[in-house]
Specification:
Blueprint lengths: L1 H46 L12 H8 L8 E5 L2 E5 L6 E4 L2 E8 L5 E5 L5 E3 L11 H10 L8 E2 L3 E2 L14 E2 L9 H6 L16 E5 L4 E5 L2 E5 L4 E3 L3 E4 L5 E3 L8 E3 L11 E4 L2 E8 L3 E6 L20 H14 L8 E3 L2 E3 L1 E2 L15 E7 L2 E5 L3 E4 L10 E5 L4 E3 L8 E3 L2
Parallel strand pairs: 3-16, 17-28
Antiparallel strand pairs: 1-2, 2-4, 3-4, 4-5, 5-14, 6-13, 7-14, 8-9, 10-11, 11-12, 15-16, 17-18, 18-19, 19-26, 20-21, 22-26, 23-24, 24-25, 27-28
């Protein structure tokens, strides 16, 4: 009797195990279907975006890869190992992001896009002493000052490829990092963009820092060639960011007069926004809690001295002129707001070394950076000047955020028209 009972128990346990296994398997299959079904829907929406009215939209990457003509020589868009790369000096690869004009370097194989400022936005030292790029002050400046302009939701970490380069014949990408969202141009970016030694990324008069370094110096462009210099030199910086592969194209054809425009990229007032105030163009370069700082897009029509003797802006004749005659001339009283200009509370001031500087065509103007007994000029190169020599002046203003916008979209092509 005992043996029969034992056998009976064994026969009853086996079906229970099978039932439990089947239920677990079924739950697993249902879970997989829900998880991967949701992911399928998510990515279908990403790669097949629609407008509020249900109209199918195109991502910028898919527009470029499907509608642009691929070339095999001369200027244009090349296909190289799954990457779409712009090469030459005359290419239509302009895109507006936050009303700032960029050039598309390439569409990567995963359809993310590396883009670079069309113009350099400052001239700074690479560092105060030699350090690796990842530890340099210029890298910190990019990922604090410049990154604050953008919505990180549209950005991917950008790739820095083998920063150490001893010789130009040894440029390779066997090591890379992608922990930062903003970087400098690299030697590979320049080389890959050239056709007959010409590229849209450089011109003959520019010295631009690159993220590549030697064992004691840093690389930079010298026109369309390369050089290495002490890291304390002050050269131009053109920041590079990487757009996600799902940014949606709103309008444009990539030309300079009709650049690509994307979502998260316009009709908002922020750093890089252009304002038209009484037919004078300004660019916002700093946003505060209740104010904007704006820089004139032109220089004053006549040159002025900084002062007869001092290089202290707070005591200078230039400050006295700007706060007096200049403010009377422009008559923006209802817009102006007192802000801090390097320790001086005023409605008007000048740029300092770390301020973003839009419109690189403007040269030879004072910035608030004393050097010994001299003052600094923002020029094709950063130089010092005696304070009593007449130079260009680029005024900056503090204005209220309470602006009445009449028209425009805030870009360099259609600045916001501000009612005074």
């Amino acid at each position: 009797m005992k043996k029969r009972k034992t056998k009976k128990r064994r026969r009853m346990i086996k079906p229970k195990i099978q039932t439990a296994f089947c239920l677990i398997s079924l739950a697993f299959i249902i879970g997989c279907c829900i998880y991967y079904g949701n992911r399928l829907i998510k990515y279908y929406k990403i790669y097949n975006p629609k407008s509020e009215t249900g109209e199918t939209l195109m991502t910028l990457a898919s527009t470029i890869t499907s509608k642009s003509q691929i070339v095999y020589e001369g200027d244009g868009l090349y296909l190289d190992n799954g990457n779409y790369i712009y090469k030459g000096s005359k290419v239509d690869n302009y895109v507006l992001v936050n009303n700032i004009l960029f050039r598309i370097i390439k569409v990567n194989s995963d359809r993310t896009m590396d883009i670079v400022f069309d113009e350099y936005i400052n001239k700074l030292p690479w560092n105060s002493e030699y350090k690796d790029y990842s530890e340099s002050s210029i890298n910190k400046y990019l990922n604090e000052k410049v990154l604050s302009i953008f919505d990180k939701e549209i950005l991917e970490p950008t790739v820095v490829c083998s920063p150490k380069v001893s010789k130009l014949t040894e440029v390779k990408c066997d090591e890379y990092t992608n922990k930062d969202y903003v970087r400098l141009l690299g030697i590979s970016d320049i080389l890959n963009s050239m056709v007959d030694s010409k590229s849209y990324l450089v011109n003959d008069s520019e010295y631009l820092w690159l993220y590549n370094e030697t064992d004691s110096k840093a690389w930079h462009t010298s026109g369309s060639s390369f050089g290495s210099s002490e890291v304390t030199e002050k050269y131009g910086i053109k920041p590079v960011i990487t757009l996600k592969n799902n940014v949606t194209l709103v309008s444009g054809d990539g030309t300079k007069n009709n650049p690509y425009q994307i979502t998260h990229g316009g009709d908002e007032i922020g750093v890089g926004t252009y304002l038209d105030i009484n037919d004078q163009i300004y660019t916002i370069y700093e946003v505060g809690e209740d104010y904007y700082k704006i820089q004139s897009d032109t220089l004053l029509p006549s040159t002025r001295i900084f002062d007869a003797s001092t290089n202290d802006y707070s005591k200078s004749g230039l400050k006295y002129y700007l706060e007096g005659d200049y403010l009377k001339e422009i008559s923006y009283d209802k817009l102006l707001k007192e802000v801090d200009f390097d320790g001086v509370t005023s409605k008007v001031g000048i740029l300092n070394e770390n301020d973003l500087k839009f419109n690189s065509k403007l040269k030879g103007y004072f910035i608030n950076l004393p050097v010994d007994e001299n003052i600094t000029l923002y020029n094709g190169t950063i130089v010092s000047s005696k304070v009593n020599i007449r130079r260009n002046v680029r005024p900056c203003l503090g204005i209220t955020k309470d602006l009445n916008i009449i028209s425009g979209n805030g870009s360099i092509l259609a600045p916001f028209i501000v009612e005074v």
